[in-house]
């Protein structure tokens, strides 16, 4: 998780520092969007491996998050080269799907059983914060 957070802040800082340089901005933009996928997967990894270790879907969710993250990163690279239309729509769907995956796979009741009410609060608040970031993502475009 910590490595993913540092990578996100580093890539975002570099992107905003070199926004005037077209080539650097393009490369750093891909890095910045890739960091979002990594942060979402990195946020779920400790929860899935520690809190959901006894749940049959814990490992499944962790593996699925990392697969989706790497698919999202690959998409970022391809979309930068090919200029895919509606790229933002695909990215938002993938970001949101990854962010709320545990709710739709494990379920709130099972999740609460493994992490307690405090864990549910963290899941909801974290999910709302990530979801709130969508507003800034859309406004940027």
Characteristic key phrases:
mainly alpha; single chain; AdipoR/HlyIII-related; 6 helices; 141 residues; transmembrane
Structure, described:
With 141 residues, this protein is mainly α. The chain has one domain (2-140). It has six helices and no strands. The protein has helices spanning 2-17, 22-51, 58-82, 87-99, 101-105, 108-140. α2 (22-51) runs antiparallel to α3 and α4 packs antiparallel against α6. The mean pLDDT is 88.
Radius of gyration: 16 Å
Which strand-content bin applies to the residues?
Answer: under 5%
Q: Tell me the total number of β-strands.
A: 0
- The topology string of helices and strands comes to HHHHHH
Whole-number average pLDDT? 88
Which structural class is indicated by helix and strand composition?
mainly alpha
Q: What characterizes the major β-sheet?
A: none
Separate helix tally? 6
Give the count of structural domains.
Answer: 1
Shape: elongated
Distance between the termini: 27 Å
Helix content: over 70%
Low-confidence segments: none
Give the helix/strand layout.
Blueprint: H1 2-17, H2 22-51, H3 58-82, H4 87-99, H5 101-105, H6 108-140
Helix pairs in contact: 1-2, 2-3, 3-4, 4-6
Binding site for Zn(2+): 16
Transmembrane segments: 6-28, 35-53, 59-80, 92-110, 122-139
InterPro entries: AdipoR/HlyIII-related
């Amino acid at each position: 998780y910590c490595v993913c957070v540092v990578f996100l802040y580093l890539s975002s800082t570099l992107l905003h520092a070199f926004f005037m340089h077209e080539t650097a901005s393009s490369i750093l933009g891909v890095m910045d969007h890739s960091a979002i996928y990594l942060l979402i997967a990195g946020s779920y990894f400790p929860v899935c491996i520690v809190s959901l270790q006894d749940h049959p879907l814990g490992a499944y969710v962790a593996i699925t998050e990392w697969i989706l993250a790497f698919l999202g990163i690959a998409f970022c690279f391809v979309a930068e080269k090919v200029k895919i239309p509606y790229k933002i729509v695909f990215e938002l769907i993938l970001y949101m799907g990854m962010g709320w995956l545990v709710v739709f796979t494990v379920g709130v009741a099972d999740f609460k059983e493994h992490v307690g009410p405090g864990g549910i609060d963290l899941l909801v608040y974290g999910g709302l914060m990530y979801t709130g970031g969508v507003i800034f993502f859309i406004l940027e475009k």
